[in-house]
Design a protein that fits this description.
CATH class: Mainly Beta
Number of domains: 1
CATH topology: Jelly Rolls
Structural class: alpha+beta
CATH superfamily: B-lactam Antibiotic, Isopenicillin N Synthase, Chain
CATH architecture: Sandwich
Strand content: 15-25%
């Protein structure tokens, strides 16, 4: 049996929230949040937009597209990088309606605010000050899984850890399938939908930033029933103009610095070229023992 339950964290909690978030990041590397401040109506509208975008021609200007067959026959995705303002979306010349553009912007802004709160509380829980994700790159990604009778019991994507600091995920309220790997038992733990919550996954860059303290969780979406499944994820990636490295607070004689500072684009390039998708990419930047 799995040895770790996925925590449910109340973001309106007054006392102990920073410590609870740090404990979850160090523990199973995944948690659900409630009372996060994103209106249910906005979440519902964003899903409607995501569903409609997949019905458009795939030559969409301003979006990155991964088609079916590149990862698995059942998976495709659309993503938009670094949405900071509505003008960013307009400048990308997305061939969608004004309402769709506004919904994408409002949703991204709301989730970024949630990420900002989590980042500040993680800093506080670690004895640090400041806005962790101020000015960071982000990516909004919409996923569609074409699950059918033939795909039941099969993976919808690859087992992987996220190439981000953290990922905030709106899962499908109608179709389950997301699973994480329990770091102690190695068993898969299902993350069935919980109404009103968002899922937060700790990524590889959080492991580096915390000098190995945080756990980057392996996860996968599998087909458990023959229904189309959607998910919407915001990835908090990395600082725009700074290298990824652990603050000196995490480094001492008992905890020597594990990773050499690196540029995010360099990390992504190395991760792709080595195909280290299940948590091994940060180890490629570890200091070599003398």
């Amino acid at each position: 049996m799995a040895s770790v339950e996925v925590p449910l964290i109340d973001m309106e909690k007054v006392d102990g929230l920073p410590e609870e978030l740090v404990k979850a990041a160090e523990g199973c590397g995944c948690f659900r949040i409630v009372n996060h401040g994103v209106p249910p109506q906005l979440m519902a509208e964003m899903k409607v937009v995501a569903v409609s975008l997949f019905d458009l021609p795939k030559e969409l200007h301003g979006m990155s597209y991964i088609g079916r067959g590149l990862i698995t026959p059942f998976f495709e995705s659309l993503s938009i990088d670094d949405i900071v303002s509505l003008d960013d979306l307009c400048d990308n010349k997305l061939d969608v309606s004004t309402h769709q553009l506004e919904t994408i912007y409002k949703y991204t802004k709301a989730i970024r605010e949630v990420a900002g709160l989590i980042g500040r509380k993680l800093m506080e829980g670690s004895g640090l000050e400041g806005d962790l994700f101020d000015g960071w790159l982000c990516q909004l990604r919409m996923n569609k899984y074409h699950f059918c009778e033939e795909s039941v019991g099969l993976p919808g994507g690859l087992l992987h850890t996220d190439p981000s600091f953290l990922t905030i995920l709106q899962d499908d309220e109608n179709v389950n399938g997301l699973q994480i790997v329990d770091k102690l038992s190695g068993e898969f733990v299902p993350l069935d939908h919980v109404p009103g919550t968002l899922i937060v996954n700790v990524g590889e860059l959080a492991k580096v930033w915390s000098n190995g303290r945080y756990y980057c969780v392996n996860h996968i979406a599998s087909c458990i029933e023959p229904k189309i499944r959607f998910s919407i994820a915001l990835f908090m990636l990395a600082p725009k103009d700074k290298k990824i490295e652990a603050p000196s607070k995490f480094v001492d004689s008992d905890h020597p610095r594990l990773y050499a500072p690196f540029d995010y684009r360099e990390y992504v390039k190395v991760r792709k070229s080595t195909r280290e998708f299940t948590g091994g990419a940060p180890d490629l930047f570890k200091f070599t023992p003398n």
